[in-house]
Fold this protein.
Amino acid sequence: MNDDPVFKALADPTRRLLLDRLYERDGRSLTELESDLEMTRFGVMKHLRVLEDAGLVVTRRSGREKLHYLNPVPIRLIHDRWIDKYTERRVSALADLKHELEETA
Amino acid sequence: MSTMVQTNVQVYAVFIKASPEQIWEAITKPEFTSRYFYGSLVDSTFEAGTAYRSWSPDREKLWVDGEVLDSDPPRRLSYTWRALYDEETAGEEPSRVSWEIEPQEGGVSKLTVVHDQLERAPKTAENVAGGWMYILSGMKTLLETGEPLTS
């Protein structure tokens, strides 16, 4: 899968700020998100669109409103790509240690 | 660093290079769930009104108990969720898990999980937040490479 849209979406301070806002409180409308920023409604919409295309924001309809949710899964996938083998090793090292302690006990 | 305020609706989505049918199988067959869902074995006919259950790998403990609310293979599935694997969450009111599978271009499907109705299950909300990410990431790896994330 292509990670480029994720990195491009994260490479902008306004978009990171929008993600911070959703991290603080998820499920916000455009109007709510827009009130935090000194930017036109159109500008915020454009940024949200980039985040949505990258899969970092997912929208759901709730009545007449469109609510925005932070989707951390693409970041988790990036994490798994480079970090996972280290955490894996630590987990197995702990398991080995436990095994060894139990053997000698 | 701000602390995350847990909301009563959690939404997770992932693009997987697989057909909706393959993803449906991964959600509904124990031989698949055992490879990405904490080793758990799903147990249900996936017909509305029937039980949704998920067992520990040794089939000794019931980990999740619920009821299928809505089932439209291979596009939509919704069931109630009581997390029995944790003492703190076991006593809470049931919440709701919904899966949506939407085919995209190029043999890719968008899989969305919505975990909601968490108003009276705050411990569950806290408990599943990292879990769904791990599960979706694991399912993607399994379907795209045939290998589970952790062997």
User: Anything to note?
Assistant: The interface with chain B takes residues 1, 20, 23-27, 55, 58, 60, 69, 71-74, 76-77, 80, 84, 88 of chain A (CB under 8 Å). The CA atoms of residues 14 and 47 of chain A lie 8 Å apart. Helices of chain A lie at 4-10, 13-24, 30-35, 41-53, 73-82, 84-104. The first helix of chain A runs from residue 4 to 10.
